[in-house]
Amino acid sequence: MANHYELIHPKTHLRVLSRYEIQMLKDVSSETHELVRRCCYAALNSGSQEDDYLQLEEDFSNFNVEVQQEDRGIVLNLVNPPARAFVDGEIIRGIREQLFSVLRDVLYAQESILKAHRFDLHKGEDITNAVFHLLRNANLLRPDQKPNLAICWGGHSIPRHEYQYTKDVGYQLGLRGLDVGTGCGPGAMKGPMKGCTIGHAKQHKRDGRYIGITEPGIIAAEAPNPIVNELVILPDIEKRLEAFIRLAHGIVIFPGGPGTAEEILYLLGVLSHPDNQEIPFPMIITGPQESGDYLREIDRFIGLTLGEKAQQRYQLIIDDAAAVAQSMKDGFKEVEAYRRSHSDAYFFNWALTVDEDFQLPFEPTHEAMAELKIHKSLPQHELAANLRRAFSGIVAGNVKASGVKRVMQYGPYKLSGDSDIMDAMDNLLNAMVEHGRMKIKGDYTPCYEIVR
After folding, report:
1. How far apart are the first and last CA of the chain?
2. Phi and psi at residue 12, in whole multiples of 5°?
3. Does 2 have pLDDT greater than 60?
4. What share of the chain is helix, strand, coil (3-state, %, to 5)?
5. Residue 184 included in any domain
6. Would you say 234 and 240 are in contact if contact means Cβ atoms under 8 Å apart?
7. 192 and 277 share a domain?
8. Shared domain check, 305 and 202
9. Are residues 329 and 259 in the same domain?
């Protein structure tokens, strides 16, 4: 079959590259070229309902991206791009912008953060500074805006009634002039943005922000949705999670699978640190009436593992989109007052203490997963960190290339710990499987095993 080519010029940012950067992107054997190729394919594949890594890998194999230098700047030559990215032969504008966001973030992360040794990425303070630089380079930091960014977390594989509810909440947030950020993919990451655009339109708000925050390991299975108008790609899941909480003025959490559990445990682990006890951070767990039992199962899991004090850091609101938005807006007033009184920036939450256990990248090998200490005797934030790692490994085994390949080669990850915690984790994971929260389509084969 003959190759199909498309030439794409930038319309907004990243119009020029250095000869060195061009050479890196042209070198097909380089890590940078492969990262760009994978992330560009994900952006072009926006709207896909496929999260099977093996199927995605097959579709991806014939795709390539070449960067060419012209007198007026750069141009992307796309080889066999997905047809869904084009309308009447023209690339969708939002997808065009996301393509050049990919180039911007991958090049900057590789050359200015990961290889430049400007920061010691084994030290917490330097990791936070690296996250700040990555967000600033992506132009996501807005010093002139008061707190109004609601980050929304939730599953990419959710039923229709939950998706509709995420749209309803997004609509109510938009009516109140709030902006929305998500993990940028489908499901509960797309719904709030879709609803928010309608709320903004009714209020004639023309500068609405729909921020998508992702990382290379997961972007292929959770392709950015085209509503995202500010995309940033962080180098790994830990920096992505820190970017979420440093940018956010509050977080709304919808029903989801192991990735959402990972995010909840990350946030509660950070908020449970002794240094963060007085810092206001609105957090709401919510969903439609049909999802109430599942959300209460999550609430019980948090109570059993992290205790009542952790449960007090969030509200559980069932089937009331307007109440979610109103509560978030009220919470933003507390955030604004606290940051003003402490001379803290509105655009980046410097005050939060994030322990290095939540910052250092966790590579979910079978050995690392088996060695996780999941015991109630640990300090609360340390237990939360290890539980977060366990769910992160399950996410990797479900959708990330490296994790899927490991599970295929060595079998399921084995997890062990205190019997009551492991029983609760098993119940929660079984509920995720029963409700179809592990995969968008097809039968699910567990990538984990609870060892008792």
Report:
1. 53
2. -120, -85
3. no
4. 50, 15, 35
5. yes
6. yes
7. yes
8. yes
9. yes
Render pLDDT for 156-184 as a digit per residue (tens, 0 to 9): 888 999 999 999 999 999 999 999 999 99
Do 110 and 148 have their domain in common?
no
Give 143-159 pLDDT, tens digit per residue: 988 999 999 999 988 89
Do residues 429 and 150 make contact, with C-beta atoms less than 8 angstroms apart?
A: no
CB burial of residue 61 (10 Å; 0-12, 13-18, 19+):
exposed
Q: Are residues 333 and 186 part of one domain?
A: yes
The residue behind tokens 């190759």 is: 3
Range(s) of the domain holding residue 88: 5-118
pLDDT exceeds cutoff 60 at 1:
no
* Sign of the torsion angle spanned by Cα atoms 354, 360, 361, 367: negative
- What is the Cα Rg of the chain in Å? 21
Count how many domains the chain has.
3
Q: In whole angstroms, give the CA distance from residue 44 to residue 56.
A: 13
How crowded is residue 26: how many other Cβ atoms within 10 Å of its Cβ?
13
Q: Indicate the DSSP class of residue 224.
A: P
- The angle subtended at Cα 215 by Cα 287 and Cα 317, nearest 5°, is 15
Alpha-carbon distances, residue 73 vs 16, 67, 105, 126, 232 (angstroms): 5, 10, 18, 34, 22
pLDDT tens, residue by residue, 384-436? 999 999 999 999 998 888 898 999 999 999 999 999 999 999 999 998 988 88
The contacts of residue 389 (CB under 8 Å, 6+ apart) are: 362, 364, 368, 369, 372
The structure tokens listed for 173 are 């947030």
Looking at residue 123, the DSSP 8-state letter turns out to be S
Distance CA 188, CA 230 (A): 17
